[in-house]
Amino acid sequence: MSWSLDLVPLPPCMELGGQPLSGLLWTLLLLFLWYCYRVGSDPPGIGRVHPGKLKSGSARCSLSRSSSCSGSEPGRSAPKASAAIGRETGEEEEEGAESYLTPVLSQALFPAQAGAGTRKLYGALQEYAKRYSWVGMGRIHKGLRNQARINERSSIQKPHLFYLPDVPSIPFFPRDAHRHDIDVLEANYPIILAEFQAVYQRGIDTKLGWTYHGPKGQAVFPLYNAGVCVASNCRACPCTYRTLLSLRTFISSNSLGAAGFWILGPGATIGGSYGPTNTRLRCHLGLQTPAQCELVVGGEPQCWSEGHCLLVDDSFLHTISHNGGAEDGPRVIFSVDLWHPNVAAAERQALDYIFAPEQ
């Protein structure tokens, strides 16, 4: 359809101050007429929907896979909710075109080989999504469904509790990944060391807040254990406790997070093991680090340095050894669990809910 306007002289009644309308007003008039023409050319009944968003009626229709849903035209299938999630989170659809949200309504699609622990976590995710939103939960949903497959595979990275897909992973992260928190810890190194020495000189005893962990020669003085503050130990190290609270990414609200002093005696070795999840990084602040101590993560060896931090992804296979003698004394680090920098804020909130500390 084509049409044009023939410009004709205006009658006196359409002149301003005896002068014809300016060219700008003519331009605005032409734009208005063009807009009316374009709007009028859209087929009736078709609304414009913002890319990446679906009307609520269409989303409900996709979830229930119903052919009759208000807001959809006869003979035209409703758009799938999983398509919107794919655009938002960058995830691809599951094989067989299954929506990420389908298992919300049916437990049948959850993997049969999943253990009781994983099913409990999945139930917690459903509760969280019903209370808040499924927005941003694509990776967590996929990770819980695939956890059994992760546990069965042979890999150098195999977190045994929860694996978040599509998270960039390397055994040792650069300092820039958590520059602020590392600077805070290193700046407070002298007072953290002094408070450790004070509790260490009282003796290593379970009655004094210590716990034995792993092989002989390893002990932990926890300030946070599985997301729970150990109040008596924090009172013994008040400056270290305040330093923890000043960190931006410390995992303090769920069972994946911990912080405390770790001791490894001479001659002790911790064999190859995997951490519980790849959603965190362990920050090791060296307090006492004999030269014969070594940390190997994912096949890469590193040594601690007093007053400096290492960022470790312990979901990789890792070993720790102290090959020094009695004269070297124990290796001592202050370990703090920080969020992996590629875990989004919405995912952190959901993981706090799913892995809430046991009461």
From TrEMBL:
Family: Belongs to the aspartyl/asparaginyl beta-hydroxylase family.
PANTHER family: ASPARTATE BETA-HYDROXYLASE DOMAIN-CONTAINING 1 (PTHR46332:SF4), ASPARTATE BETA-HYDROXYLASE DOMAIN-CONTAINING PROTEIN 2 (PTHR46332)
Localization (cell): Membrane
Regions that span the bilayer: none
SUPFAM superfamilies hit by this protein: Clavaminate synthase-like
Annotated signal sequence range: none
Bias (Low complexity) ranges: 63-87
Alphabetical list of InterPro entries matching this protein: Asp/Arg/Pro-Hydrxlase (IPR007803), Asp/Asn_beta-hydroxylase (IPR051821), IPNS-like_sf (IPR027443)
Region spans: Disordered: 63-95
Keyword annotations: Dioxygenase, Membrane, Oxidoreductase, Signal-anchor, Transmembrane, Transmembrane helix
Record protein name field: Aspartate beta-hydroxylase domain-containing protein 2
Major subcellular site: membrane
UniProt keyword annotation of Membrane present: yes
Cellular-component GO terms for this entry: membrane
Limits of the Aspartyl/asparaginy/proline hydroxylase domain: 186-341
